[in-house]
Amino acid sequence: MKIVILSRSSKLHSTHRLVEAAEGRGHKVQVIDPLRCYMDITSHRPKMYYKNQSIESVDAVIPRIGASVTFYGNAVLRQFEMMGVYCLNESVAIARSRDKLRAHQILFRKGIGMPVTGFAHSTLMTKELIDLVGGAPLVIKLLEGTQGKGVVLAETSKAAESVIEAFRNLKAYFLVQEFIKEAAGSDIRCFVIGDKVVASMIRRAKEGEFRSNIHKGGIAENVRLTPEERKTATRAAKAMGLSVAGVDILRSNHGPLVMEVNSSPGLEGIEKATGKPVADLIIEHIEKVAKPKANRTKGKG
Question: Which segments within 41-195 are labelled E, that is strand?
């Protein structure tokens, strides 16, 4: 097979691992920076160009689109969909997962457990918003934040009011969520491929930090999931329409709660913590399901 990986750099760890895994299984791989692509979008035969050369005879595309290039990266991915190329994660699914508000609304509609979450435009409703999620302490998240950035723990109602006012003055949109105290600064990353959780790790925040992201100093180790946690993770990925996803779950007194569904989950942390060759499992999945015009949206989303 000829596989294209949409990534800003072949030196990124996850991209490198996918190239290594694909080549190790006998496939041809090309890493393409989506920002250096251009497209013929009006032709009866849609085309993609990279470095002045037409990209043809591609069997599958693996999108590794960073949050900062979501708009153009998704446009490139959508063009591949229009060309009938199988895409591991489709553009519509990535757009859903990147919009935190939309993602939460979709998860709620599917009956998937989440922390109590509020959203408002005006600061006139700040007190009501704080009360809605059970008061302080509470978590405030920018809609466009990633990897723990733009996430604030407000330990008092006064602090929450100050943060909310600051975000609105910056014309930034955000969610307000209940703080799950019993999670004790830890969460679980479930790595979903297809309809299965293939690896899972528990991430614990360093002392004095409530965010458990590894690049924020958190530590990770392999964890055994309960059947309910496994089912929640696969349902969340399916709700987003993602074939590959990193589903982040909190363990609460009333069951597993989904915090986020990541459409480009990193491989380094999960492979180190679990010892599982997740990159190889992704390529194996593509081998099983990739075929021309297999995309559900076919570039229409």
Answer: 47-50, 53-54, 60-63, 86-87, 117-118, 138-142, 151-154, 174-178, 186-193
